[in-house]
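Protein data sheet
==================
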Amino acid sequence: MALYIAALFLLILVAVFAYNYAFIKGQLNVGTAYGARVACSCHYVGGRSIEDCEKDFEPGMEVIGLSIDGVKKRVTASVPLMESATAEFREGWGCVMLTEKELDAE
């Protein structure tokens, strides 16, 4: 009986996720872009550590992870297997978001 209830719960969870996939994907797109841009500016313009920059995230952004490429001066914010966004520091411009086309060209 417990297995039946667990399977039913899992089925309902998958159905809710599938129904709201576009919304969830959109929110993750915005969240990762915001995270990459804020963390890039915080680190390269503000001179703070990337760990300290995570403190600037809004509540609910705990699922977003940050990685830094010190050579290219980039910060990537991502939700594993779902979404990612990258911001690059450019002298005189600050941090700018990179498009998929720019990232694929490398």
In short: Strands lie at 65-69, 74-79, 83-90, 94-97. The chain has a mean pLDDT of 91. The first strand starts at residue 65 and ends at 69.
